[in-house]
Every structure is written in C-alpha cells, then in structure tokens.
Model the fold of this input.
Amino acid sequence: MSALRVLLDNRPSYLSFGAAWLLGHGAYAVSHGDSPLVRLPAAVPGALLVGGLLIAMVVTSVVTMRAKRGATGAEAVVGNLLAASWLVGFGALFFVITALSSALADDNVRMLLWPTGSGLVVGLLYLAGGAAYRDVLQYALGAWLALTSSAALFLTGASPYWVLALAGGGSYLVAAALEPRRRAVAA
Done:
C-alpha cells in the first residue's frame, strides 16, 4: 500500500481550495456581466481568488510535505514527478493563454481562459494523482473539474464564474466530506 495514500489526508487541501474557488470565483460571478448583483472594486475578486489560492497552496504543501517524509523509492519519485507536473502544466497554460491573447488581440481571452484553463490543468493533474495513487475520489474530482471548467467556456457573461464557483468550489467541499470514507476504505 502506498505511503502517501495511507498518510495523506486531503481534507485540508480540499477545504481550502473549495473556499478559494467559492469566494474568488463567486466574487467574480456576482460582480461581472451585464447586470452584476454587486458592484465591487475590480481588484476585490482577484484579491480574494489569489489570496485564497495562496493560502490553499501553503496548506496543501504542508500536508504533502508531512506525507512525503515517509515515502521512499518509487513512491518518492512519483510524488516528485507529480509535484513538478504542476509547474509544467501551469507554465504551458501561461504560454497558450499569452499566445492566444496576443494573436487575437483581446484581453477578454485572458480573463476567460485563466480561470477555466486553470480548472482544466488542475483537473488533469488530479486525474494523474488519482491514477498514480489509486485514489478514486481524487480521480473523480479531477474529471469533474476538467470537464466543468472546460464546459464553462461555452457560457457568457458571469456564467463561467458561477460554474467555477459552484460546480468547482462545491466539488472540493463534497470531496472533503467524502475523504474520511476514502481513507477508511484505503486502510
């Protein structure tokens, strides 16, 4: 049985990322579109999202580092490769969004592709982590995030942000609620 699979409790990570997605994307949702529900200064939604994501990354890093202490050999290699995949995935996303924004000469492309593209990258990385550690819950969360984030591109106005906040952030909270069950089955 995998050391990380036994030791890693994803609840803190899922809860912190769920809160970041709900608050950050939710702030974008309520303050954007033709008739926003609330008028917020332009910097507020971004600050909520970035601040929440930074906190969630710190929480996840602490949880992961504690779990990785017991990992050796192939298990440690898998953990290190998955960690590096986050940098590669978001680096590639940066290039794609920068190139598309430049080619189309439209800053709205950047505004739409960063949140939805990030959801796609995160979803794909959770798929990889779920497959590597045989974690069906993480795999399912990844599939859901990848599909809903990508499907949100078909929507207009504030609707993509509503999808990211509710379907994305909400799915993290559902995963956090199901995590104790996953850990009990894995034991």
About this structure: The chain has a mean pLDDT of 89. The two ends are 9 Å apart (CA to CA). The helical segments are 3-7, 11-31, 43-68, 73-104, 107-132, 136-151, 159-186.
